[in-house]
Specification:
CATH class of the largest domain: Mainly Alpha
Mean pLDDT: 98
Bound molecules: coenzyme a persulfide
CATH topology of the largest domain: Butyryl-CoA Dehydrogenase, subunit A, domain 3
Order of helices and strands: HHHHHHHEEEEEEEHEEHHHH
Strand content: 5-15%
């Protein structure tokens, strides 16, 4: 759903300009230094990027899902590390509070998340619990009007810069599965919360990732999301349904950028006496990329419109995540191939983007988990 075409176009236009004029020229620097400069972060806050999908009543732009994916198509056209800086505030870091939080929790956190005054991240994965999220072991034991958290959360995006965490922990040790899990909002400065060293990654340099460790961390009972025990796994799954759709849209943005880079190179590069764009085998690589990217874009828009009508789009969001993340992997591979030897060199953006996009098939649920979600829904509907 698009609320006002003109206002949305202004926003998309300002994002387009910011990406083209400010972010793309900084890509190499960010990759080399492994951090997004502070002045860029400030400009992102001024543009409203930290509050894109936080409701207007809490100071965000309150984008609908359709508007959000249109914004993500544009943001995706630069290094994914830039999106990651504000991605968790709009997505997995804040959505638990937005979808299931109490009014008091919303009032306390959302206005500051919307401006970027504070940064949120999402703590689900653990050393022994990745795809099997319901087996998580971080515990939250009730003690008076507090919960005592113990456990380690692994590979948490934006944790090094986070002020607040959405944490899934087991409140009922008797219940080993999903029903024993609750969700909490935990402030970074809570005694007993500490961070591991930042990980060195294959790509997406500038998007910091580390472990978050809870060692007898006392969290007020008022921070239990929704004030209800046992519903944390469902909160996490709902958050991921939306997150997967958003990530799919970012994949399309990166794919469009890769196609642009490959097209540009194919028009410039000459071999056998002519530009390589005129060779049919190069044209096949370009055309396959364009068609697949267009298919992903179309299914994402369709799913986003559906989600604006009803929240339960797990199956469709999983289809989008699976197709778009695999698609951008193939597009990146073809873009490197079109570049030939140049595509293997650091000075060309496709080399870096090729490594960056590999993560899309893994985080917020691997391709294999998306297959499970899709097939389980199909079976449930057919039974
Ligand atoms: N929305 C709401 N509720 C959901 C849901 C969704 N999308 N998906 C599952 N649930 C509910 C189920 O209805 C079930 O509720 P009941 O106990 O009331 O029946 C409960 O949650 C447990 O669901 P299920 O039995 O399907 O859980 P499984 O342990 O089989 O796990 C998968 C389901 C594998 C899909 C889940 O663990 C998953 O998504 N794993 C990947 C985790 C991930 O993406 N990690 C990335 C880290 S974040 S970067």
């Amino acid at each position: 759903m698009i609320r006002d075409e003109e206002i949305l176009e202004q926003l998309l236009d300002s994002i387009r300009r910011f990406v083209r004029e400010r972010l793309i020229p900084l890509e190499e620097q960010v990759a080399d230094e492994d951090r997004v400069p502070d002045d860029v972060i400030s400009e992102m806050k001024e543009l409203g990027l930290y509050g894109l999908s936080i409701p207007e009543e809490y100071g965000g732009l309150g984008l609908t899902m359709e508007e959000e994916v249109l914004a993500a198509f544009e943001v995706g056209k630069t290094a994914p590390a830039f999106r990651s800086a504000f991605g968790t505030n709009n997505g997995i870091g804040s959505q638990g509070i937005i979808l299931d939080g109490t009014d008091e929790q919303k009032q306390r956190y959302l206005p500051r998340l919307a401006t970027g005054e504070i940064v949120a991240s999402f703590c689900l994965t653990e050393p022994d619990s990745g795809s099997d999220a319901a087996s998580l072991r971080t515990s939250a034991r009730k003690d008076g009007d507090e919960y005592i958290l113990n456990g380690t959360k692994r590979w948490i995006t934006n944790a090094p810069s986070a002020d607040v965490f959405t944490v899934m922990a087991r409140t009922n040790p008797e219940e080993k599965g999903a029903r024993g899990i609750s969700a909490f909002v935990v402030d970074r400065d809570t005694p007993g919360v500490s961070l591991g060293a930042p990980y060195k990654k294959m790509g997406q340099h500038g998007a910091p990732v580390c472990d978050v460790i809870f060692d007898d961390a006392r969290v007020p009972a008022a921070n239990l999301i929704g004030g209800q025990e046992g519903t944390g796994f469902k909160t996490a799954m709902k958050v991921l349904d939306k997150g997967r759709l958003h990530i799919s849209a970012v994949c399309v943005g990166v794919a469009e950028r890769l196609i642009e880079e490959a097209m540009h190179f194919a028009l410039e590069r000459k071999q056998f006496g002519q530009r390589i764009a005129d060779f049919q085998l190069i044209q096949a690589l370009l055309a396959d990329s364009r068609a697949e990217c267009y298919a992903a874009r179309s299914m994402i828009l369709e799913t986003a419109r559906l989600r604006d009508q009803r929240p339960d789009v797990s199956e469709q969001a999983a289809c989008c995540k699976m197709f778009a993340s695999e698609m951008v992997g193939r597009v990146a591979d073809r873009a490197v191939q079109i570049h030939g030897g140049a595509g293997y060199m650091r000075e060309y953006a496709v080399e870096r983007l090729y490594r960056d996009v590999r993560l899309f098939r893994i985080y917020e649920g691997t391709t294999q988990i998306q297959q499970l979600v899709i097939a389980r829904n199909m079976i449930r509907n057919a039974e």
